[in-house]
């Protein structure tokens, strides 16, 4: 039984080492962006977030006008 436990521990250790070796190999295959690509992607993301924020602001404003002011005015409030 003790040999089974040691065998399982060695197998687990070997599996972890194999996994980390494969991770290192795969990370070596990654094409990392250069500074210009990174700057371009960052600007695009910031513009997109601002645009979505503006759309949400406009939708909130319109719904507020309809639900908070428009509907109660129909009932004389």
Notable features of this structure?
mainly alpha, elongated, 2 domains, 77 residues
How would you sum up this structure, described in words?
The chain is mainly α. The protein folds into two domains: 1-30; 32-77. It is 88% helix and 0% strand. The chain contains two helices and no strands. The mean pLDDT is 88.
Largest sheet: none
For the residues shown, what is the average pLDDT?
88
Strand percentage: under 5%
Summing up helix and strand content along with how strands pair, one would put the structural category as mainly alpha
Q: Residue share in helices?
A: over 70%
Summed up, the domain count is 2
Number of H/I helices: 2
H/E element order: HH
Low-confidence stretches: none
What is the topological layout?
Layout: H1 2-29, H2 35-74
Quick summary:
The protein is mainly α and 77 residues long. The protein is 88% helix and 0% strand. It has two helices and no strands.
